Amino acid sequence: MYQQVNRKFAEAVMEEAPQFSEAALAAGIAFIRLGRPREAVPCLERAAALSGWKSPSPLYYLALAHRRAGERKEADRVLAALKRIGPELVGSLEREVR
């Protein structure tokens, strides 16, 4: 039931509020929690872009999604960007991404 609710939530958020960065972030996190990291990536890229790539939260989850999707080079690219703006978040994520 939880997964079905999360999926519907993520899909509704992206349909109803595509220009709201927090909504795109929430949808991306929902997809990660559902074990669907590849579907999380576009949501999280949108959240990062809407925030001007200056908010650490979308980058944190984007690196995590890429890593869980097996996209190490992309995860490393996003991790490097995160180090520039949110170095305090990098420690725990870097251990998981590497």
Describe the structure.
This protein has 98 residues and is mainly α. It is built from 6 helices and no strands. It has helices spanning 2-16, 21-33, 37-50, 56-68, 72-85, 87-97. The mean pLDDT is 84.
Keywords for this structure?
98 residues, mainly alpha, 0% strand
Beta-strand content estimate:
under 5%
Mean pLDDT: 84
Number of strands: 0
Low-confidence stretches: none
Spatial separation of the terminal alpha carbons: 32 Å
Number of helices: 6
Radius of gyration, taken over Cα atoms and rounded to an integer in Å = 13 Å
Overall structural class, as computed from helix and strand content, comes to mainly alpha
- Principal-axes geometry comes out as globular
Share of helical residues: over 70%
Order of H and E elements: HHHHHH
Secondary-structure blueprint:
Blueprint: H1 2-16, H2 21-33, H3 37-50, H4 56-68, H5 72-85, H6 87-97
Helix pairs in contact: 1-2, 2-3, 2-4, 3-4, 4-5, 4-6, 5-6
Short recap of the structure:
This protein has helices spanning 2-16, 21-33, 37-50, 56-68, 72-85, 87-97.
